Amino acid sequence: MSEKSLFCGMNKPAEPGNLTETEKKHMPVIDCPDTVKAGEPFKVNIKVGEIPHVMQEAHSVQWIEVFSGENFKVRIDLTPVTTLPDVTVTLVKSGKHRTSTIRVVERCNLHGQWEAVKQITITE
């Protein structure tokens, strides 16, 4: 059986505790507080890869999207050579739910879409 194409759906690590070289370069890394206060802004930093991803004309990250649960929040379009796949956005969560999932999707022009998630707790 041949390996599935990286462009067939959303790429996620086969073994999250044991990333391959390709996964280390493409998995979004989400850095934000584990607990946030309802109604107060908080920063979410996203970098693409534990190992820095190249940003060359022929191979680059094209965009990064940030979701809160399934709700789209922001898309950052990147340009090869002149931008880096390392961004910070500011979000505000309401107190309606006690937990939320920050979900990040990025697209590499050669290796498809990659997704990472992080659970956060929301306090009053």
TrEMBL record:
Protein EC: 1.15.1.2
Family of this protein: Belongs to the desulfoferrodoxin family.
Identification of the protein by name: Superoxide reductase
Gene3D superfamilies in UniProt: SOR catalytic domain (2.60.40.730)
Domain Desulfoferrodoxin ferrous iron-binding: start-end pairs: 20-116
Gene Ontology molecular function, alphabetical: superoxide reductase activity
Sequence segments annotated as region (Disordered): 1-25
NCBIfam families documented for this protein: neela_ferrous
Native species: Candidatus Magnetominusculus xianensis
Classification via InterPro entries: Desulfoferrodoxin_Fe-bd_dom, Desulfoferrodoxin_Fe-bd_dom_sf, Desulfoferrodoxin_SOR
Alphabetized UniProt keyword annotations: Electron transport, Iron, Metal-binding, Oxidoreductase, Transport
